[in-house]
Predict the structure of Sodium/hydrogen exchanger.
Amino acid sequence: MVEKITAMLGLVGILSIVCQWLGWRLRLPAILPLLLCGLLVGPVFNLLDPDAIFGDLLFPVISLGVAVILFEGALTLNFSEIREHGRMVTHLVSLGTLVTWICIGVATHFIMGFSWELAMLFGALVVVTGPTVIVPMLRSIKPKSQLASILRWEGIVIDPIGALLAVLVFEYLTVAAEPASHVLLSLFSMLGVGLGLGVLFGYGIGVMLRRAWVPHYLKNTAVLTIMLGAFVASNLLQEESGLLTVTVMGIWLANMRGVDIGEIIEFKETLTVLFISGLFILLAARLDSTALMQLGWQGLALLLVVMFIARPLSVWCCAVGTSLPRADKWFLSWVAPRGIVAAAVSSLFAIKLERLEVAGADKIVPLVFLIIIGTVVSQSLTAGAWARFLGVKAGSAQGLLIFGASKFARELAKVLLQKNVSVVLADNNWDNIRLSRMDNIPVYFGNPASEHADNALDMTGLGRLLVLSPYRQLNPLVTFHFQDILGKNKVFGLGSGEGNSARHQLSESYLERLCLFGDNVTYARLASTIAKGGKIKSTSLTENFSFADFKQRYGEGALPLIYLQEGKVKLIIQAVDDLPVGIELISLLSEEALNEALLADEKKAAASLEDGECVPSTSVDGSQESKGSQVPSAVTADEKAAG
């Protein structure tokens, strides 16, 4: 028996990784292969019976897994970020949540025949969307920037809000089964313990992190164990209050000043992926296919209400007072897939409700899974065509994500932003991020290849990645991560400048990406040029001032970087003989090249004065400065891919 249990646990682990890989490879929400896998090994082939394997441990395993998932989700709920992302997001996670909850709850009561309490609990369970299903869908749909931002932030913020709503409704439902005289007392007791311990432990963890009471290597483990301890303690003090406690803890930590939770979020994400994958396979394996089929027309009718009434009504109510066009509203009305939080929390609550012998509790899980399957499958398959029909697909993404926020990267970003090119600097060095923010450059603090970045880093409008960081161990990871997202010919990095003894350890597929700005251009060269007084300038190439004139003027001290042509951004990656006129050339000029050009201008001006000519006061090349060998010409990334 022990060997069988061990084998089944190993099987769940292997299947969860395979399903996550399939979701990543197919650009689909991982919930789809996880769901299919759970159904196959469970009710279809009867290879996995979670109740038989775990026995009495099944409920504690699901409880702890849900606690970790809710805590991690709550850590992302920063109120200042909600305000920064527009009125529509704020409306969707407040008024929209309320409208969706009431609409689904009322429909569930009349269609499924549930009691009002159970119907409102079901409504609370399925208001959440979640970034784990939204983000992969947005990558394949590629709607315009504003819509992608609204949907992504709605998914991030609504997770803990919806979970908190579900917990409160569930706690009311459980105490409502008691004599009327104890209902209010029990409910206030749950709220008091949950809110009180959540604030107390959240503040305590925040102080611990802010004052560095534990060493760095113990920080993540300490937060995890304290969170689980708070969950257990809360349930011991007041039954069913633990989920409320961990949700409030996460929200408190996310909004506490002076507390850096970036590493904690990344650590919790690793655990969350593990719990999501394993839990979802186990939960799907427990699903009774007969119960799912027995939902019949009522289940399908409720699914239609969720998709065609509740969501559009919520979106159009929330759009009042905003400037969203009609097409944008119709697109938002269709995209709202449900995810893992609904599945995990509903399964946990169903077990508890069945123990309390609440009528209809056995239908909660099949109904939630029906909503998940219906929304994810239908919207994944049709949202792209719907976006094209409405004309809300994004055009060619010309923006740049730059990994590394050194002084060179900041100066380059400032010039590009002046030319209306979208730029985001990503770095895990806080000083670089702070200086970038002082220059009003959009930033992401952390590892851009992390799970947190997948959810929090807004990639809308960013079509290429430039790796300009000195982090040799992290650069390949970031490069390969974004090759899968953006495409192989959309990711470029600087040359390493290392000899063959070091280069042979790197793969050829990675080395061929290290050609940005020219084969021999390294981070050290760029940093040294900027440190010695070099500047990044934008120069207009015209019939009167061609690329040949540019080379003659600045000589070997000029390094062309990027040029802009008809609204498109062209990266310079290897030498050619010439560049076309009618472009804006962005280049790095050494201090010597600038001084020589200035001296030449002064000599020309002096000669003109001697001849009695009028000398214009502007630079001959019409260049603009940003306070920041043989000159390589340019071949663009697009041209290299084509040729």
The CA atoms of residues 86 and 108 lie 32 Å apart. Residues 500-504, 625-643 have pLDDT under 50 and may be disordered. DSSP finds 28 helices and ten strands in the chain. The longest helix spans residues 145-176.
